[in-house]
Specification:
With 512 residues, the chain is of the alpha+beta class. The chain contains 15 helices and 15 strands.
Length: 512
């Protein structure tokens, strides 16, 4: 097959096609082993496609785009292609050699011998976040986050294909993404485009925030045995029946995730690990994405935030002694993925409210169920919430100790300390009160933000000491700050007096 570049140069494509999709087929190019060509099947909308591809080609030729090396990670259009009559038919791009897809990692139970370890999954997510962040730097939006369009390389980094469907901004024009895989569309977009299409909706559609929603879905599924955050499992009922299950998109639209709220007659799928087995900083990112982000899309974590959290998480993993594919957070006493496997296989009853007989006709299917039908008959009660008893005790003990320490210092230490610097009793009193209040604030800040035990639920002895040191540091810090302010004020007063004297002298000398 012969095709032509914009300048009229003939390019020979090798047949048959490497692969074929709904829109077009991808061919090798003779003489260019690292390049391929996508040729569209139909000429419909050829004019609109040609404009979008030409704009994307111009974007790829900018120095900023090249400096980000995006064409190596995304099958980005590099040149439009035409037939012999100069009608637009496709485009050329860099060849993506990876064959495995992100969707392959979501299969549960994993294929024999094909399970990716949790560390490798996190490596994929870190690479995914990196590419998203770099593309957003150029002002462009992905839109469609179909996991089948995200390829996994042997080093566990990712490549993106089907870039011609992206949401592109160029020279004041918007070239819309008009498709998006079910289960990855943000709730505000589902509600806005109900009854119409992404192409015809009169308002804005895909944004960085909709990309962040889809990214959070991928992060969740990768860390939760492929489970979608809006997938529910029907609870067993003795009499009657539960309401018909909703589709994933319906639950996204209404914000119903069993991991963050109670849904009548439904519970968390049995194969999902306990979400509270993740470190608190990861759990909080999910909560921001799916709870806060439901009403405020800008509350969703960015790709950069996810990347930093995942890099930290990867460094805090420990290997499972039973399954080499399982790595889990070091703050857990046992592997939550092994526990999920036992629940799935029906061998563990710790999360079941009471023993129940299992109908043979309703046993857990041996093969994974497609995402739209991921309502499974096996029982699993909701995971218990994270234990907050240790946190409450830690806070109460450190606050009581800090108040006692600050009262004693406010009576014995601070008055003499401030009196040695100033004879003004009012300033000394302000210093004493300010130091006590600052010390109490230091304890609260340390307990809420800096205490390591917040992420693991247990507090070491030295954290109590650090809390007291935070109170002491903030108390003394207030005194230092007050001294600096006093010095600055004194210097400004002297400067003001000096300027006033200079002004008077200048006026006298000038006869004014």
């Amino acid at each position: 097959m012969d095709v032509y570049t914009l300048s009229g140069k003939k390019i020979v494509l090798k047949e048959p096609a490497l692969n074929a999709g709904g829109e077009g087929s991808v061919y090798e190019i003779k003489g260019y082993p690292k390049k391929v060509a996508k040729i569209y099947h139909h000429a419909s909308d050829a004019c609109a496609r040609e404009k979008k591809i030409k704009e994307m080609v111009q974007i790829s030729e900018t120095n900023f785009f090249r400096s980000l090396n995006l064409a190596q990670d995304i099958a980005w259009p590099l040149a439009p292609l035409f037939d012999e009559t100069h009608h637009f038919i496709g485009f050329g791009m860099n060849r993506i050699a990876a064959s495995n897809e992100l969707d392959d990692l979501y299969v549960y139970p994993p294929k024999r011998g094909g399970a990716a370890s949790i560390k490798h999954r996190i490596d994929c997510l870190i690479s995914l976040c990196d590419v998203i962040s770099r593309l957003h730097c150029t002002g462009q939006i992905f839109g469609d986050f179909n996991p089948n369009n995200i390829k996994i390389k042997s080093d566990w980094t990712v490549n993106f294909v089907d870039a011609d469907s992206y949401h592109i901004y160029r020279a004041g024009n918007v070239y819309r993404c008009i498709v998006c895989a079910p289960g990855y569309v943000a709730p505000e977009l589902i509600r806005a485009c109900k009854g119409t299409t992404y192409a015809d909706y009169p308002g804005p559609t895909f944004t960085c925030e909709t990309d962040y929603f889809a990214l959070a879905i991928h992060c969740f599924r990768m860390l939760m045995n492929g489970c979608h955050p809006y997938t529910c499992q029907r609870q067993p009922k003795g009499v009657g029946s539960a309401p018909a299950p909703k589709s994933v998109d319906k639950r996204i639209e209404s914000g119903e995730s069993p991991f963050f709220q109670t849904i009548p007659d439904y519970t968390i799928p049995s194969y999902a690990p306990d979400i509270h087995a993740l470190p608190l900083y990861i759990y909080e990112l999910f909560r921001r994405a799916f709870v806060d982000g439901y009403t405020n899309p800008k509350a969703r974590p960015t790709a950069s935030e996810w990347k930093l959290a995942l890099e930290r998480f990867r460094g805090e993993l420990q290997p499972c002694s039973h399954n080499p594919a399982h790595d889990y957070w070091k703050g857990n006493p046992s592997c939550p993925y092994c526990e999920a496997d036992r629940r799935y296989s029906g061998k563990m009853s710790a999360f079941v409210t009471k023993p129940a007989s299992v109908d043979k006709k309703r046993r857990m299917p041996a093969r994974p169920i497609p995402m739209k039908k991921m309502v499974q008959p096996a029982s699993a009660a909701p995971f218990p919430p994270r234990n907050t008893t240790g946190k409450s005790a830690f806070g109460a003990i450190t606050i009581v100790l800090s108040i006692l320490m600050l009262v004693l210092m406010g009576y014995w230490v601070f008055p003499d300390l401030y009196s040695s610097f100033t004879d003004n009793k009012t300033l000394a009193a302000i210093g004493v009160i300010g130091s006590c209040v600052s010390g109490f604030a230091g304890v609260l800040i340390y307990n809420r933000r800096w205490a390591i035990g917040n992420t693991r639920g247990k507090y070491r002895w030295y954290e109590y000491l650090l809390s007291m040191l935070a109170a002491l540091g903030f108390s003394l810090g207030f005194g230092v700050l007050m001294g600096i302010v006093a010095m600055v004020f004194a210097v400004l007063c002297y400067i003001g007096i000096a300027l006033l004297i200079i002004g008077v002298l200048a006026a006298v000398c000038s006869g004014g």
